[in-house]
Amino acid sequence: MPHTKLRRLVTISVAVSLGATALAACGSSDDNDSEADSGPVSLTYWSWTPGMDKVAALWNDGQGKKDQIKVTVKKQASGDTLVTKILTAHKAKKAPDLVQAEYQALPTLVSNDALADIAGDVDGVKDKFAEGVWQQTTLGSDAVYAIPQDSGPMMFYYREDLFKKYGLDVPKTWEEFAETARALKKKAPESDLTTFSANDSGLFAGLAQQAGAKWWTTEGDKWKVGIDDAASQKVADFWGGLVEEGAIDNQPMYTPAWNKALNTGKQIAWVSAVWAPGTLTTAAPDTKGKWAMAPLPQWSAAENVTGSWGGSSTAVTTDSGHKSAAAKFATWLNTDPEALTALAKEGGIYPAATTAQTSGAFTEPPAYFSNQPDFYTQASAIAKTTAPSAWGPNVNVAYTTFKDAFGSAAKNKSDFGAALTKMQDDTVADLEKQGFEVAE
């Protein structure tokens, strides 16, 4: 759809909700295009990535010096905290030139007219990213609201030694995954293949994405919410069924008990993303070199698609007086080999740019996976199969409801489908409360 349509989806003139859900309609980003990019230009970039100031220094001493464009990084918190801060600053027309934004936050920022369309400044950049990742920065329109920075393609992690001990095969489909969970329970009743956790909404969102879910789409000038669509119901019923029958655990992730389960072999697999080695290094230090990574199980053997869990982008704000200069830095930051190597070294990110996923810091496997030399080669191939996502302007409301509704359902081994319906209803109600028109 044309980029102006997304902005027209908001008909209210509210300022900023501290819950980061209220969205205000403003004019097109074209309203503030008079730039003074001749001569020295100073840009400010809000980012939470560790070491981003060191990466920006490479720009300032190299390409930035040639182009007379200096970038200063201001360290920020991440998540909804940063979204709220950006919207508050934008209300006063004092947002920085550049911001780091998670993909799911982009619709909120765009609907508030906080992000500029930089399509005219990034010709030829699209091909450097997987289609499903690039789509998240365009919101399905002909505009470009950000440059992908890092991504979180999902994959399957398992204890290679324990799979061998129990005679288990790595599941290639979700049906095989369920059969593997049941087989393990018969052979080692005190162990679990994995757990269903409701304390990180991104996991379920990524699984639904892989299944083909489209949680937010547009229909004319209205938002359409499909959180309880057939694909998502399929995912909810699958995991709810496994929890109800006791084939997998129902405890949350990131707790001392979860860490212990991973470290002792009580939980022998984890559906996660490319960043999992870092988590496992801390959670299960005694099992280093005993894990392996494989593609995510598929809903049918003929498919080859993954979801994403995490990831962020670099966007230019509508308040910037130097949008072209800012877009030039955003492009360099996320496509230049030197910049990408520095991002990996200083910030520990997995780059969204496909050419960087098997070069530089990614020619050797993570130390925790030294037993799998082709770790990043496999990860890069998986990343290319990332499914498109469909984010909307009130992701935080859906995620909060998920934690409450699915958290209760997992604990009580009750109906996951009902929890999904609760997510749908709460999300629609919030959109309507904020003044959005919602299609049935």
TrEMBL record:
The keyword Secreted does not apply. PROSITE patterns: PROKAR_LIPOPROTEIN. This is Extracellular solute-binding protein. Residues 1-24 form the signal peptide. InterPro entries: Bact_solute-bd_prot1, SBP. Keywords: Signal. Pfam families: SBP_bac_1.
